[in-house]
Amino acid sequence: MTELRDPIHDAARFSAVLMPHRSLGPKGFLILMGAVSAVSFGTGLLFYMIGAWPVVGFMGLDVALLYTAFTLNFRALRLYETVDLKQDALTVTRVAPSGRSQVWNFNPYWVRLKLEQRVGRPTQLSLASHGHRLVFASFLTDSEREDFASALSAALSSARSPAV
What we know:
Blueprint lengths: L6 H4 L3 E5 L7 H24 L4 H23 L3 E6 L4 E6 L5 E6 L5 E5 L7 E6 L2 E5 L5 H19 L4
Antiparallel strand pairs: 1-2, 2-3, 3-4, 5-6, 6-7
C-alpha cells in the first residue's frame, strides 16, 4: 500500500543557510596581494640597491606567508550550516570546509532554543531536547545571532500551534 503525503505537511516552514561573513572577496584579495607585492618588491629593490641583498628574500617570504594565511582563511570560510523546519522535524546540517556534513534532527514540539548571554564573551545559540544539546551559528555576530534566534523562535512557535 502506498502512503500518500500531504504536500503542505511536507513543505518547509522555515529554511535558512548560515555562512560566515567574508569581508574580502576574490577581487579585493587580488588587489590587496598586488599592492603588498608591489610595496614588498619596491622595498626589496631598494635594499638590494644599497647592498643589503639578503633582505629581498625576507620581503618575498612576507608576501608568501600573507598569501598562505589568506588562503587558509578562505578555506575555513567554506563552512556553512542549514536550518530547516518542517511540520514534524527541525533539521540542522553543518557542512565543514572539507565537505563533510553532520546532521541533527529535533522534534519541533520538544526542542528548546536558547540564546545565552555570556559576560565578556559572545552569545551562544543552542538547541536542546531530551538531554542533547547542539550549539550552532557560532560564526555569526551577536546581533546576527539575536536576529536569527528571534526568527527561528517565531517559526517554532508557529509550528507548535495547531493549524487553522
